[in-house]
Amino acid sequence: GHHAVGGRELVPLAALIKEESRTERHAVTRSRICAREDGGVGGEVGEAETRRPLLRYGCAAQSKKGEDFFLLRTDCARPSTSSSSSTTSHPPTFAVFAVLDGHNGDAAAIYTRDNLLNHVLSAMPQGLSREEWLHSLPRALVAGFVKTDKEFQTKGQTSGTTATFAIIDGWTITVASVGDSRCILDAQGGAVSLLTVDHRLEENVEE
């Protein structure tokens, strides 16, 4: 079912995937490459740096077979419709964290690590405000996952991977996943929430 968090209704990822499969579109002609730019990408009017949370992060991994990978980016530039602040020296950015648990080889995990983010960004319409950007993220994530899967299948490889993908923009966290690599939110006050659902036959009726 749908869930409301912070006053926003969340749509199940499975429902978006079904809709995406029915209405698959051609990729937009321009893709926004996630990279820090010294100029040309503007911040939004009234978006003060002091209002953004301080992001601290760490990474620890123990890969027994060498099939597990992660993605960690904190400097991805978010496009803005604001022309008045296009010369700002500090363009608005978002962070990306991903865990990829490969199996039967590392090819799928490596390909996903190197391509999923760009596929998600290429599915985003251009010229969006921050609110529109956040609202469009779930559908773009679905499109990015589907495109990555389809492209990898054409390579004739037999490996696979889980993919848990989190985008943090200000105080908003958007998470999408396939497989059973969990994303857990440990919020201030002691509330612990699972932000993903395990895609395992023995635990998930829909799966």
TrEMBL record:
Xref: PROSITE patterns? PPM_2
InterPro entries assigned to the protein according to its UniProt record, in alphabetical order? PP2C, PPM-type-like_dom_sf, PPM-type_phosphatase-like_dom
- What reaction is this protein's catalytic activity? O-phospho-L-seryl-[protein] + H2O = L-seryl-[protein] + phosphate; O-phospho-L-threonyl-[protein] + H2O = L-threonyl-[protein] + phosphate
Molecular-function GO term, any one: protein serine/threonine phosphatase activity
Q: What is its EC number?
A: 3.1.3.16
Sorted keywords for this record are: Hydrolase, Protein phosphatase
- List each copy of the PPM-type phosphatase domain by range: 44-207
Recorded hits in SMART domains, A to Z, give: PP2Cc (SM00332)
Q: Which Pfam families match?
A: PP2C
Q: Record keywords: Hydrolase included?
A: yes
Protein name per Swiss-Prot or TrEMBL:
protein-serine/threonine phosphatase
